[in-house]
Amino acid sequence: MEQMKMLYRLDVLNNKFSGDLQILVFNNMSSLQFLLLANNFFSGNIEDAWKNKRSLIALDIISNNMISGKIPTWIGSLEGLQYVQTSRNRFAGELPIQVRSLSELKMLDVSLNQLVGEVPSTCFNSPSLAYLYMQKNGRSYTTSVLFI
């Protein structure tokens, strides 16, 4: 896959692919805008090699069920991200405050994980944010988000 420098959309939705996410290497895919890996059986943590994908608009890893670890803090450096879907996995810990840097964010779905802690309203400064899904996380997960 590293030879696909001009690939802008990688869509492997609804297959039965399995294995560690760290085998997915996107280092040379500088044009990648859509990374759609939902409804598979991937496992492991989100690879740090993804942190330089500033061209990403959509990250969809819903329903992989075995993806674990924390949502990485570098997600805030992907300033063009508009759609982030991570529900139905095993993400734990707190939602990184760096999410507030995603000024183009239109949809954030972190539901059905194991997130805990408080989510300050400053995490959601995007004027474009239209959809926010945070339900069914860890027991001590609270939010101070106020919608007007």
TrEMBL record:
It is a single-pass type I membrane protein. Gene3D superfamilies: Ribonuclease Inhibitor (3.80.10.10). It comes from the Eukaryota. The keyword Transport does not apply. It is found in: Membrane. InterPro entries: Leu-rich_rpt, LRR_dom_sf, Plant_RL_S/T_kinase. GO terms for cellular component: membrane. Transmembrane segments: none annotated. Pfam families: LRR_1. Keywords: Glycoprotein, Leucine-rich repeat, Membrane, Receptor, Repeat, Signal. PANTHER family: LEUCINE RICH REPEAT FAMILY PROTEIN, EXPRESSED. This is Uncharacterized protein.
